[in-house]
Fold this sequence. Notes:
It holds the Pfam family Acetyltransf_CG. One of its GO terms (molecular function) is transferase activity. This protein is an alpha+beta fold. The protein has a single domain (4-90), classed as Gcn5-related N-acetyltransferase (GNAT) (Aminopeptidase, 3-Layer(aba) Sandwich), CATH 3.40.630. It is 27% helix and 39% strand. It contains 2 helices and 5 strands. A 5-stranded mixed β-sheet has the order 1-2-3-4-5.
Amino acid sequence: MQIIEDNDASGGRYHATIDGSTAEMTFSRTSPSLIIIDHTLVPDALRGKGVGQALALHAVEAARAGGWKIIPLCPFFKAQLERHPDWQDILKS
């Protein structure tokens, strides 16, 4: 699955389009070292296909590669963090 990242000065989104349906995870940038993940949208046509999980993993990998932390406001992303104790290193403490 190809995940595309769109950025601007204040934030952006990670998104993937499969069979004409697009799922996305949006974020706001509060500083060069901190983002807030605020929303995840997975259309019904893509539910159960692991798209949301892939978006969440992409966000974690991007944070690690970029050296920033994440504040998880999105309920879906928060739930993913609880399922993955190995992702705790990207959390803003």
